[in-house]
Amino acid sequence: MLSRTLNLVAALSLAIVSLAAHAARDVWPGDDWETATPESQGMSSRALAELLTWASFAHVDSLVVTRHGRIVTEAYYAPYDAAMKHRINSATKAFVGSLVGIAAAEGLLDPQGGALVQLGESSTDPARRAITLQHLIDMTSGIEWHEPLTSDFPRSLVAMERSSHWVRYVLDQPMASAPGTEFNYNSGNSQLASAIVARKTGMSTREFAVRRLLDPIGIRDFRWREDPQGVNTGAMGLYMHTRDMARYGYLYLNHGEWNGRPVVPRAWVDKVFDAKVPMHPMAQWRYADGWWTLPSKEAYLAVGYARQLIVVLPRQRVVAAFTGRAGYAFEDVIDKLVGAVRSDEAIAPDDSAHALLQAEVRKAATPPAPAHAKDASPPQSHTFRFEPNPARLRAVTIDFTGAGRYELQWEDAPEPQVRPLGLQGWSAAAPWRGEVAYSRSQWLGPRKLEVAVRWPEEARDQLFLLEFGDRTLDVKFTPANGKPVRMSAVAQ
Fold first, then answer.
1. Pairing relation of β-strands 382-386 and 485-491?
2. Radius of gyration (C-alpha) of the chain in whole angstroms
3. Strands ordered across the beta sheet of 438-445
4. Which among 393, 386, 398 is positioned nearest to 474, based on CA atoms?
5. Element (H or E) spanning 309, and its range?
């Protein structure tokens, strides 16, 4: 009997030691993250190298993968680099959802209270008066809105952005259903939520975020757009470093606590982990407070258009952040992250696999040399004028002398847009309308030139395919997030 008791005590002691070791492995990022080899955190360097290879074909701009609070790999795909911030698009909605929870805990606003009242508005429509702040951040307001989670044109979002008063535009839309009865993705909801946060806290959404959310977890270098009235964009418009996106995910992995300090109320974070709102037409997904949840994989994501992702995997203690310029299946990236986990404990080092991973990191940062047709013969420099076209491109001037440059004249822009050709690789243009673009060109044939344009911080790119005749120019133009347009021009 005594022997059995001693064996039980020994077993319990080993279990306690094991649990303590597991808990001690998790660390808190200071001003910077700790880094570790994947194997030291129970992950496979080879599997992560395969993730980086996949990302290079998936139009990913950057990725950071962490486990137990340490970065196990990160990559930045040229011309994007670690010093740049990235527009995270609708992942902004998750941050606004957190701010609502924080402000509610401080008694500054009521998620279950009427949204109009908290905006200082009124209505004679009972359905409109029934919209709560929680409905707004859960996408169940019932306000009529067309912004489908497909490739269809988001006409309501675009109309809001083109309006002179975003909040008023949203409030002027009719009701399509009773509040709380159905999911309908609506960036206007998030703009109203941001306006409520600002009004009820007595400071801008940005300032409240700095004081209560971002600064406490070490996020200090970011940008946040505003609407025409100065309200920070609740649906999109945050620009962040990829490592800082991962910080926010790590906050949620730890149920809203940061290094012993509660930042987002635990009960508020747990609502995300038990999301209830089915996301039509993606029935397998759930939505809560600006977060997407895939219960079948125990995965929680802050999602922005063109795959700006913050991925939280509590079972694996993994947080990852991705920025990019195109869509891919969410399940693919979740499965690749989960598949890279081998153990809850450290595994044996794999020097060859780790070298392969490091080679993929270097490859991402080093763009391939431009391909040039052997018989390429650049035409003389010319200005080509276009017939009226859907792209509203009026003229292009191409100069092949020196480093090469081209100048675009758009119908809706009073000043021309000048960019380098980038015949030797990615070359940055001077800022235009506050944004910096990079160009890279390569000859595909004697008279066929491909010009790629990328806005590294803006999650978008363009592609021009130019075919030169004696005095003509045929252009296939693929705009950012759009369908190709074919145009013809004649040399002046």
1. antiparallel
2. 26
3. 417-420, 405-410, 393-399, 382-386, 485-491, 472-478, 460-468, 448-455, 438-445, 427-428
4. 386
5. strand 308-313
What's the pLDDT band for 3 if we cut at 50, 70, 90?
very low
Q: For residues 169-189, b (16+ Cβ closer than 10 Å) or e, as one string? A: bbbebebeeebeeebbbbbbb
pLDDT (mean) for 236-261: 97
Count of Cβ atoms closer than 10 Å to residue 130 Cβ: 18
Contact 304, 89 (CB under 8 A): yes
Task: Give the CA angle between residues 440, 357, 45 to the nearest 5°.
Answer: 145
Do residues 91 and 238 lie in contact, with contact meaning Cβ atoms separated by under 8 Å? Answer: yes
Q: How many helical (H) and strand (E) elements, i.e. helices and strands, does the chain have?
A: 14, 24
Burial, 276: exposed, middle or buried (Cβ in 10 Å; 0-12, 13-18, 19+)?
exposed
C-alpha distances in Å from residue 180, one per residue of 133, 141, 291: 11, 6, 17
Count Cβ atoms within 10 A of the Cβ of residue 385 and give its class: 0-12 exposed, 13-18 middle, 19 or more buried.
Answer: middle
Distance CA 202, CA 208 (A): 9
- Measured CA to CA, the distance from residue 399 to residue 358 in angstroms comes to 39
How many CB atoms sit inside 10 A of residue 401's CB? 9
**CB neighbours (10 Å) of residue 408?**
19
Model confidence over 41-86: pLDDT tens digits? Answer: 999 999 999 999 999 999 999 999 999 999 999 999 999 999 999 9
Q: Is the backbone of residue 166 left (phi > 0), alpha (psi -120 to 50) or beta?
A: alpha
Asked if 302 contacts 94 with a C-beta cutoff of 8 angstroms, the reply is: yes
And the tokens for 126? Answer: 């009972």
What is the H or E stretch that residue 427 is in? Answer: strand 427-428
What confidence category does residue 403 fall into, taking pLDDT thresholds of 50, 70 and 90? confident
Contact 255, 266 (CB under 8 A): yes
Tell me the whole-structure pTM to 2 decimals.
0.91
pLDDT at residue 214, as a whole number? 98
The secondary structure of residue 90, as a DSSP letter, is G
What's the CA gap between 36 and 59, in Å, rounded?
26
Output the CA–CA distances (angstroms, integers) from residue 236 to 5, 95, 141, 399, 470, in the order listed.
60, 10, 18, 37, 46
Each residue's pLDDT tens digit, 426-473: 999 888 778 889 999 999 988 899 999 999 999 989 999 999 998 899
Sign of the CA dihedral running 283, 286, 291, 292: negative
Residue 250's Cβ-side half-sphere holds a number of Cα atoms within 13 Å equal to: 27
Dihedral, 241, 242, 248, 253 alpha carbons, nearest 10: -160
Alpha-carbon distance of 78 to 303, in angstroms, equals: 23
